[in-house]
Amino acid sequence: MTETLDTVLPKDVQEAVGRVLKRASDSHRMIATAESCTGGLVASLLTDVDGYGHVFDRGFVAYTSEAKHDLLGVDPGMLERAGAVSEPVARAMAEGALRASKAALAIAVTGYAGPGAPDEEPGLVHFALARRDRTTLHRLRHFGDRGRGAVRLACLQCCLELLEQGLADVAEAAA
Questions:
Q1: In this predicted model, what pLDDT tens digit does every residue of 15-24 receive, in sequence order?
Q2: Minimal CA–CA distance to 32: which of 111, 169, 131, 120?
Q3: 115-135 residue pLDDT tens
Q4: SS3 content of the chain, % helix, strand, coil (to 5)
Q5: Where would I find the H helices in the chain?
Q6: DSSP calls for 70-94
Q7: Which pTM does this prediction carry?
């Protein structure tokens, strides 16, 4: 399915990205991404399948709090109060990406892919999916201290699951 990532992706991720892109294409919906701990990996995955370039609108890699504010409009006060790795920030990132794009859905991910400060839980990741005229969805995952690469790959699967859910919800609403 994927072109350049084929050798490193598990089969279930390859199949999931195919389903997401086909469903988005069939429903004429575009996707945007807002990524922190995945560093653009989700955008890379969504653009790595030949024939679906029209489905991806744009991606934002907002690794620092300043970038989350500058690129996605996340309130600095929220970042200070809740922390960059939190449900409110994940939701704000997804909603900011949706506002700044022509996409129908925007997926956001923020978390700790590896060990950080003593009070940071390795593998703690927040996900959010914003959809036009719909409630923003949120997921929290505790992937554990499995290493940056393994956490980032697990993030791909969760992002694809949320995108599939969001696209199914949009299809149901249109029916």
A1: 999 999 999 9
A2: 131
A3: 878 889 999 999 999 999 899
A4: 45, 20, 35
A5: 11-26, 41-46, 65-72, 76-82, 87-99, 148-174
A6: HHH---HHHHHHH-SSSHHHHHHHH
A7: 0.94
